[in-house]
Design a protein that fits this description.
Blueprint (H helix, E strand, L loop, with lengths): L10 E5 L2 E5 L10 H8 L3 E3 L4 H7 L5 E2 L25 E2 L3 H10 L3 H24 L6 H16 L3 E2 L4 E4 L24 E6 L1 E2 L7 E6 L6 H20 L6 H19 L6 H6 L3 H4 L44 E4 L2 E3 L2 H8 L2 H4 L4 H4 L7 E3 L2 E5 L4 E3 L7 H11 L15
Parallel strand pairs: 2-3, 4-5
Antiparallel strand pairs: 1-2, 6-9, 7-8, 8-10, 11-14, 12-13, 14-15
Length: 416
């Protein structure tokens, strides 16, 4: 009968390159300290019941404990504690912003793990695209994704609750939660918006694919999909160090407005549409977010970076300028959400740009989101995600993939 051993972990800087590990884990047997010293490549290892005496022997001037607010979620990190901590000079304010900032820029080893999470998650998305058909439940696709990630990639957990929206559910931004648990039956003619990402050793991925359940886009579905794809490619082309992330959101918004005007849903001058924030009616979320140990990673709003209180932009999870080593999602979308459309139609400043006769054709359409994970490089970006993206790629892959004969090569895909 196994015993659950609950231990406590903290890391203390002794001098450069020297660290102390206080073990935290659950094992059926207690491994000796040397086991963990080798496994984690640290200099000292001690058990939790020694923490007070070990730290006392080092005579620290101050102990730094981790406590602070995640600027994205508003959650407060749980501060470390142990018996005897009251004898030390403890500071719980310094460490959090420093650790958060360390997580913003990824090391080469971190990037390797994130490439792996994207590789397996991309393959799982492609398995879903092969299997989807009318008459099955959304949760069957969620289950297939999770099974593939675990069975083929050792990824026991997903980075977040899977979003498997079909039909009108594809316009619900965080569909899939307990109140709407991916339980609709997929119908012929539906668009499927599947936002799913696997997690490996705490590092996440966040990928969204939108495609027709029957494998063939209708003209309207194609038009909206290609509008979103055009904005995604425009952002990818513009990404490089020094670029302000809010400007990338504005760029995606502008492309959407231009394309919706070509489709006939909107009319008038795009510059004037931008001034009244019409883009936020169709994309009411931010363009993307930092990605790492959390799917919405910390560090989005450090001291000196302020949230922009304007429609759409206020939903951005970071307003930083890009730096080499950052990993972010690029996830533009166009959605037809009745509440927001009705709101715009009752606002004279916005309704004058809307061709309501054409808009009626898109009521109940749902939405399109295309989400890729990227790493910022010295001169641009590295695309981590590898899934079919153009209409032609998706239709060909779905047509041939169900027979098991179709593979997909990223090197020939996603031409901009």
């Amino acid at each position: 009968m196994s015993r659950r051993i609950q231990l406590f972990c903290c890391r203390v800087e002794k001098k450069p390159r020297d660290t102390v590990l206080i073990l935290v884990s659950c094992f059926a047997r207690i491994h000796p300290p040397e086991f963990f010293k080798k496994k984690y490549a640290v200099d000292e290892v001690h058990y939790v019941n020694e923490i007070s005496s070990v730290l006392s022997s080092k005579k620290p001037a101050v102990l730094l404990t981790l406590r602070g607010v995640n600027t994205d979620s508003g959650n407060v990190s749980k501060e470390a504690s142990f018996e005897g901590i009251s004898q030390f000079n403890v500071n719980n304010k310094i460490l959090h912003p420093e650790i958060a900032e360390c997580r913003v820029i990824k090391t080469d080893m971190e990037l390797e793990v994130l490439r792996y999470t994207n590789k397996i998650s991309s393959e799982a998305h492609k398995e879903v695209m092969k299997a989807v058909k009318a008459g099955i439940k959304e949760y069957e696709m969620e289950s297939l994704f999770q099974h593939y990630c675990y069975a083929r990639g050792g990824m026991r957990h997903t980075s977040y609750t899977c979003i498997c929206g079909s039909g009108e559910n594809s316009s619900v931004l965080h569909y899939g939660h307990a109140g709407a648990p991916n339980d609709r039956t997929i119908e012929d003619g539906d668009l499927c918006l599947f936002d799913m990402g696997g997690e490996y050793y705490c590092y996440g991925s966040d990928i969204t694919c939108t495609f027709p359940a029957n494998g063939k886009f209708t003209p309207d579905q194609r038009a909206i999909y290609e509008a979103v794809l055009k904005s995604s490619w425009a952002v990818m082309k513009a990404v490089k160090p020094g670029v302000a992330w809010p400007d990338m959101h504005r760029l995606a918004d502008r492309v959407h407005l231009e394309e919706l005007t070509k489709i006939g849903i909107l009319k008038g001058n795009v510059d004037d549409m931008v001034k009244v924030h019409l883009g936020a009616i169709f994309m009411p979320h931010g363009l993307g977010h930092l990605l790492g140990i959390d799917v919405h990673d910390v560090g989005g709003y450090p001291e000196g970076v302020e949230r922009i209180d304007l429609p759409g932009l206020r939903s951005l999870r970071t307003a930083r300028s890009l730096e080499q080593g950052m990993v972010l999602t690029i996830e533009p979308g166009i959605y037809f959400i009745d509440h927001l459309l009705d709101q715009a139609l009752h606002d004279p400043a916005q309704s004058c740009f809307i061709n309501n006769d054409v808009l009626q054709r898109f009521r109940g359409f749902g939405g399109v989101r295309i989400e890729d994970d990227i790493a910022v490089t010295a001169s641009g970006m590295e695309l981590l995600t590898c899934v079919p993206r153009t209409v032609e790629e998706i239709e060909a892959f779905m047509a041939e993939g169900q027979s098991g004969a179709k593979s997909f090569d990223c090197l020939s895909s996603q031409k901009q």
